[in-house]
Amino acid sequence: MFNALVLNKEEDQKATGEIQEIDISQLPEGDVLVKVDYSTINYKDSLAITSSSPIIKSFPMVPGIDFAGTVEESSNNNFKTGDKVILNGFGVGEKYWGGLSQKARVNGDWLVHMPKEFTSKQAMAIGTAGYTAMLCIMALENNGITPDKGEILVTGATGGVGSVAISLLSKLGYNICASSGREEHSEYLKSLGASNIINRNELSEKGRPLNKERWAGAIDSVGSHTLANICASLKYGGTVAACGLAQGFDLPSTVMPFILRGVTLAGVDSVYCPLKDRITAWDRLASDLNMDQLNEMISTIPLSEVVDSTHNMLSGKTHGRIIVDVNS
Could you tell me the CATH number of the domain that includes residue 28? Predict the structure, then answer.
């Protein structure tokens, strides 16, 4: 028997979560059994656990789109007992039982080997948020957005994606503008490497089809009017890597930034990202992330505090990365 956070839902009611003892026979099918060391809370986890969005497809469900741990059993040729592994996405915590549990059984094709530079705790300090941030930077690089091109905007800057993105961009030599509604965290953002901070309200309302050219590139986890205003403010040939919808899933924009300035809107998906790109992203994180800064942006909670923490995240009362020690 082992502990897991289990969500249940009665018809027309919001899902409720509680820690339950689970027998290993109750785990779903899969060819790799993992002893989970740590999981984490991402924005999507908060939406799922609080029933703020219809992310979870069936109940009961063990949420958690991330985990890091050690292989206990495997019939998959790519993994053996004792291997350290990471899982991000692939519908885990949405369609399949996820990482907020002491054990998980999954399809081995969803796993990546943990880079030797990381412990399980560090891997979850990065989690899907940090892995997504790296995918966004790779998208900027693939479109020729190098440090000499100009300033990079990062929205949702105090969140997980934003925090890791700023740290990574800073180490790679970029000049960074952080957009945040959390003035009390200005020093935190500067410590990560942001040289300029703007209030998110500058971007959150309906704007003009084209604005003054301002940023060479952007990483946006907000969407809606914010993303539209970013596109309207990018320099000629600029790129925005879009990975979230904290403000909304709409995009009230025009074609003008794209056909008059050659702007690129690069969508970044972390859930079903091909294995090759996942491995590249994790290898890049091992070499490009400032581990001292990573340690400064984390807080660790036990499984029993997850539900409260998800409500706090959606209320804007958290910042940085929240790690879940599923064994405490």
Answer: 3.90.180.10
φ and ψ at 102, to 5 degrees? Answer: -80, -15
Plot region of 259 (φ>0 → left; ψ -120 to 50 → alpha; else → beta): alpha
Domains in the chain: how many in total? 2
Residue type at position 303: L
Alpha helix stretches (DSSP H) within the chain: 43-49, 120-142, 160-171, 186-192, 224-233, 256-260, 275-288, 291-296, 306-314
Q: Do residue 108 and residue 146 come from a single domain?
A: no
Q: What is the mean pLDDT of each run of 10 residues along the chain (328 residues)?
A: 93 85 95 98 93 90 97 98 97 96 98 96 96 98 98 96 96 97 93 96 96 98 98 98 96 98 98 96 96 91 96 90 95
Q: Do 23 and 147 belong to one domain?
A: no
Q: Which residue, chain included where needed, has tokens 């984390």? A: 298
* In a shared domain, residues 105 and 167: no
Sign of the Cα torsion 285, 288, 291, 297 reads negative
Rounded to the nearest 5°, which phi and psi values hold at 197? -130, 130
Question: Nearest Cα to 67, choosing from 49, 51, 87?
Answer: 87
- Do 10 and 133 lie in one domain? The reply is no
Q: Which two tokens stand for residue 130?
A: 């940090």
Looking at the structure, tell me whether residues 98 and 203 fall in a common domain: no
Beta-bridge partners for 153: 177, 218
